[in-house]
């Protein structure tokens, strides 16, 4: 069904999904799975069924959305939240904080917010958390609040001892934490979403914008801006900072918090950045998947005698790239940096590894070092989309609007041929 765009357009219109962000294979598998489950004899029959069944439309959306989350993911974000939440309460004593998690998936994020604030000493009456997700199945699981081992990753897991009770089915979240969170089904593309609610002090919308095309990103940003109080903070995914920077937001200044506030002196809107390259699953990782291909053509390796050594080296390199991604996703920046250095020693310069080093430096607050690594990545691969995006964000933060604009224009030019090919 590679040439059948009906399902791609349906998912784009309903949930804003950009096929380039997940790859066509994921959508093909989801359609094939649902078509078989619905006993449709062919794709035309399944399309007819889809058009007339709200339940099947939701089932297809559920098949495409693969929840991948865990408690206290990006722990620095929760530490930053506790810090700014205490400051906000000191400024406005007696006014409870309102916090939104969107999308909330199966509940790990909104419950992490509640646990972090309770552990930081906030009283239950000082805050409330709303969780919204497009998936009724995910919201149902969040409401049940029983979690398996996969929801607890990294260390330490002392919060699990404080807030969960082991049962035969998994770990049951304590009622005190659950009482702080209100869950509901909702679509961020719905203009009436949370229409009756007051603006939130803090909004978590992490690893969502990357999956939208540029017009949808801007549409969603306007929704998020309306949901966030004028002096509130928006917590986003690590790869989404460049988008917010060019839309008039600035970092709050806490390393690895991935939190932004409105910039009172907004720079002129630059040329839109190219959308992020394809990812393999939802949600996006802290760093791109190790299988990402550089725009620069690679030398083709022929199967000649003695090629086994080259194949072994390539296999070792792929394993090391996977290790870098895993370490970075777990927030182990020091170990990820060491793995990057090991890769460069063993395999030589690589634009993706330099980009990873740049991102690790970036989130660690080492801006000049990050710039150097991003420029090395761009020297090897002048159209490296993420390096262009993040270097542009750094230049914008430093006031070099002209330099940032040039990088953004390069990113837009590099994406234009791909977009034209996609339209054909």
Top-tier CATH class of the largest domain = Alpha Beta
CATH level-four homologous superfamily name of the largest domain: Vaccinia Virus protein VP39
Kindly report the average pLDDT value: 81
Structural class, from helix and strand content? alpha/beta
Spatial order of the strands in the main sheet? 6-2-1-7-8-10-9
Total strand segments: 10
What is the fold-level CATH name, i.e. the topology of the largest domain? Answer: Rossmann fold
Helix content class: 40-55%
Our Rg estimate from Cα atoms comes to 22 Å
Low-confidence stretches: 265-307, 416-424
Shape: globular
What is the N-to-C order of secondary-structure elements (H for helix, E for strand)? HHHHHHEHEHEHEEHEEHEHEEHHHHHH
Number of domains: 3
Describe the overall structure.
The chain is α/β, with parallel strands linked by helices and 424 residues long. The chain folds into three domains: 6-64, no CATH class; 75-262, Vaccinia Virus protein VP39 (Rossmann fold, 3-Layer(aba) Sandwich); 310-423, Alpha Horseshoe (Serine Threonine Protein Phosphatase 5, Tetratricopeptide repeat), CATH 1.25.40. It is 51% helix and 11% strand. The protein contains 18 helices and ten strands. The protein has helices at 6-15, 19-22, 24-37, 43-52, 54-64, 75-91, 108-119, 136-144, 158-163, 175-178, 214-227, 241-246, 307-329, 333-347, 351-363, 367-380, 385-397, 401-423; strands at 97-101, 127-133, 146-147, 164-166, 171-173, 181-185, 200-204, 228-235, 249-251, 259-262. The strands form two sheets. It has a seven-stranded mixed sheet with strand order 6-2-1-7-8-10-9. A three-stranded antiparallel sheet has the order 3-5-4. α7 (108-119) links the parallel β1 and β2 (127-133). α13 (307-329) runs antiparallel to α14, α15 (351-363) packs antiparallel against α16 and α16 (367-380) runs antiparallel to α17. It is globular and about 50 Å long. Residues 265-307 and 416-424 have low confidence and may be disordered.
């Amino acid at each position: 069904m590679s040439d059948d765009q009906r399902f791609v357009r349906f998912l784009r219109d309903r949930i804003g999904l950009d096929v380039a962000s997940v790859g066509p294979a994921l959508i093909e598998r989801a359609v094939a799975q649902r078509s078989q489950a619905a006993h449709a004899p062919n794709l035309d029959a399944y399309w007819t069924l889809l058009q007339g069944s709200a339940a099947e439309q939701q089932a297809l959306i559920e098949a495409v959305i693969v929840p991948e989350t865990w408690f206290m993911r990006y722990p620095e974000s929760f530490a930053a939240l506790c810090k700014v939440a205490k400051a906000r309460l000191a400024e406005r004593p007696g006014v409870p904080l309102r916090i939104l998690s969107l999308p909330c998936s199966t509940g790990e994020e909104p419950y992490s917010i509640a646990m972090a604030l309770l552990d930081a000493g906030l009283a239950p009456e000082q805050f409330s958390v709303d969780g919204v997700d497009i998936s009724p199945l995910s919201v149902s699981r969040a409401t049940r609040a029983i979690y398996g081992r996969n929801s607890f990753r990294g260390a330490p897991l002392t919060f699990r001892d404080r807030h969960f009770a082991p049962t035969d089915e998994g770990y049951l979240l304590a009622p005190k934490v659950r009482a702080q969170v209100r869950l509901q089904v909702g679509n961020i593309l719905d203009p009436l979403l949370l229409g009756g609610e007051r603006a939130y002090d803090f909004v978590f919308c992490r690893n969502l914008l990357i999956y939208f095309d540029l017009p949808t990103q801007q549409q969603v940003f306007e929704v998020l801006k309306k949901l966030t109080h004028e002096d509130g903070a928006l917590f986003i995914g690590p790869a989404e900072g460049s988008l917010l920077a060019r839309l008039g937001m600035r970092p709050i200044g806490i390393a690895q918090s991935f939190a932004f506030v409105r910039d009172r002196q907004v720079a002129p809107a630059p040329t839109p950045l190219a959308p992020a390259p394809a990812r393999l699953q939802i949600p996006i990782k802290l760093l791109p998947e190790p299988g990402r291909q550089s725009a620069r053509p690679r030398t083709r390796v022929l199967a000649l005698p003695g090629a086994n050594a080259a194949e072994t080296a390539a296999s070792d390199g792929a394993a090391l790239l996977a290790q870098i991604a895993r370490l970075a996703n777990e927030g182990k920046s020091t170990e990820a940096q060491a793995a990057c250095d090991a890769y460069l020693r063993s395999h030589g310069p690589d634009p993706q590894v330099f980009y990873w080093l740049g991102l690790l430096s970036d989130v660690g607050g080492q801006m000049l070092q990050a710039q150097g690594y991003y420029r090395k990545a761009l020297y090897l691969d002048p159209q490296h989309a993420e390096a262009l995006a993040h270097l542009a964000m750094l230049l914008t933060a430093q006031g070099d609007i002209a330099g940032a604009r040039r990088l953004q224009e390069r990113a837009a030019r590099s994406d234009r041929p791909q977009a034209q090919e996609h339209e054909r």
